[in-house]
Design brief:
Elements (H helix, E strand, L loop, with lengths): L2 E6 L4 H17 L2 E6 L4 H7 L5 E4 L2 E5 L4 H11 L4
Helix pairs in contact: 1-3
């Protein structure tokens, strides 16, 4: 199963919107959604803070700042062998 990871932080409005897009697409596309709150982790803060939200598909960065629903469908299909 394809794993989509959302790196987010508390109070990040762009992160909330990205979560909505991912939740809307999850059932249709059949991926596992993993959420990682970077708050409090110096390592994660250093790697992700300026790019939030960050979305990875099977460990590969796919989106920053904004998740495009059409692009998400295309990328998940490609990774899962459907496109």
């Amino acid at each position: 199963m394809t794993v989509v990871t959302l790196y987010h932080a508390e109070g990040c409005h762009l992160c909330e919107r990205a979560r909505e897009v991912l939740n809307e697409a999850r059932d249709e596309l059949g991926f596992e959604l993993v959420e990682v709150d970077i708050s409090g982790s110096a390592e994660l803060e250093a790697e992700y803070r300026e790019w939030l939200p960050v979305v990875e598909i099977d460990g590969e960065r796919a989106f920053v700042y904004h998740v495009d629903p059409v692009g998400l469908r295309r990328k998940v299909a490609r990774v899962s062998g459907g496109g």
